[in-house]
């Protein structure tokens, strides 16, 4: 990891990606947020990771999205982020939104997974230690845990706010009826839910039915992850499955059998629409994820500064005609 002294772009807000208020709160989120799920672990290119953080901040991307188990091994993304933060960004902490989560498996045994008070509080303490922080801006329950009463999970979130260890709380991937209950409990606890994090892209639109309208009705913000459907919404798979792509690996969320001829035909048609707009398919897919005003921000996961630059360039054309939206909608799966 380099030890050069980083000086941020003095025009970073003037040249910024732009911001939207998070739900009905006063907190503004950048249209693009940088996710550290992949590419920031111990096994990844540390120098490129550092450069991506610099580039993001230089373009007004102020929100960095983590979780306790991000990186290989688990926890290494927070650890690496904490080191860069301390070495290069320590005087800019108050210009950043740093979020983390707990809910998936993090360590062995009965207390390293789920939604119990024991796990969530222990996990946040570990995250703060790894990132060398006194508090995070947003702490999420990463998923609904049917084995734990919601009052317990939400009570732990509320207490983290009251203890000053998190400024806001959110939930991720909760089914609609459980989200409604969570919003009510948090409201009654005096720590309203700031944000819901969910999967949203041209191929995955379920949240439009219930999750988005509910968040909007409750004044809760929404942030999208997986806007490129694990890379399917890019030109990567137009001519088969490249060797180093996610679908080429036997592990992970995107499998070869998902890249069917029917899917490739849809990707090809979407690519044509993107070209007519003067965008790459990935850029159009990102812009599309922001076409609803209720979507406050989209999390991008990039492996290089070049990719991040391409994502930022997507914001140059965010408007869609009704005809484009209809045609894109017809090709969703």
Structural features, described:
The chain has 333 residues and is of the alpha/beta class. The protein has a single domain (19-331), classed as NADP-dependent oxidoreductase domain (TIM Barrel), CATH 3.20.20.100. It is built from ten helices and ten strands. α4 (150-162) packs across α5 (176-188), α7 packs across α8 (281-289) and α7 (261-276) packs antiparallel against α10 (322-331). The relative contact order is 0.12. The mean pLDDT is 94.
* Radius of gyration (Å): 19 Å
Can you tell me the CATH architecture? Alpha-Beta Barrel
Helix content: 25-40%
Give the number of helices. Answer: 10
CATH homologous superfamily grouping = NADP-dependent oxidoreductase domain
In brief:
With 333 residues, the chain is α/β, with parallel strands linked by helices. It has helices spanning 46-58, 76-88, 117-131, 150-162, 176-188, 211-218, 261-276, 281-289, 305-313, 322-331; strands at 19-21, 28-30, 32-35, 63-65, 97-102, 136-141, 166-172, 193-199, 221-225, 297-300. The chain has one domain (19-331): NADP-dependent oxidoreductase domain (TIM Barrel, Alpha-Beta Barrel), CATH 3.20.20.
């Amino acid at each position: 990891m380099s030890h050069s002294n980083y000086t941020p772009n003095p025009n970073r807000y003037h040249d910024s990606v732009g911001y939207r208020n998070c739900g009905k709160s006063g907190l503004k989120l950048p249209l693009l947020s940088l996710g550290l799920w992949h590419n920031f672990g111990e096994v990844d290119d540390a120098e490129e990771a550092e450069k991506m953080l610099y580039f993001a901040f230089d373009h007004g991307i102020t929100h960095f999205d983590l979780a306790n188990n991000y990186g290989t091994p688990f926890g290494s993304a927070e650890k690496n982020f904490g080191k860069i933060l301390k070495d290069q960004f320590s005087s800019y902490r108050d210009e950043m939104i740093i979020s983390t989560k707990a809910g998936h498996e993090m360590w062995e045994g009965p207390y390293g997974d789920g939604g119990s008070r024991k796990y969530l509080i222990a996990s946040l303490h570990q995250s703060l230690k790894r990132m060398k922080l006194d508090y995070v801006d947003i702490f999420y329950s990463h998923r609904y845990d049917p084995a734990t009463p919601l009052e317990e999970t939400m009570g732990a979130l509320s207490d983290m706010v009251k203890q000053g260890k998190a400024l806001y709380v959110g939930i991720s991937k909760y089914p609609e009826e459980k989200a409604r209950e969570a919003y009510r409990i948090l409201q009654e606890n005096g720590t309203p839910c700031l944000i819901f994090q969910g999967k949203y892209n041209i191929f995955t639109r379920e949240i439009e039915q219930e999750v988005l309208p509910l968040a909007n009705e409750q004044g809760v913000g929404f942030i999208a992850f997986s806007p490129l459907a694990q890379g399917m919404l890019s030109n990567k798979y137009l001519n088969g499955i490249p060797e180093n792509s996610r679908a080429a690996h036997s592990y992970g969320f995107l499998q070869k059998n998902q890249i069917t001829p029917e899917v490739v035909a849809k990707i090809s048609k979407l690519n044509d629409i993107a070209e007519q707009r003067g965008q790459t398919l990935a850029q159009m897919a990102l812009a599309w994820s922001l076409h609803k005003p209720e979507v406050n921000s989209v999390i991008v996961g990039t492996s290089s500064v070049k990719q991040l630059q391409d994502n930022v360039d997507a914001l140059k054309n965010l408007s869609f005609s009704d005809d484009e939206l209809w045609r894109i909608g017809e090709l969703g799966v």
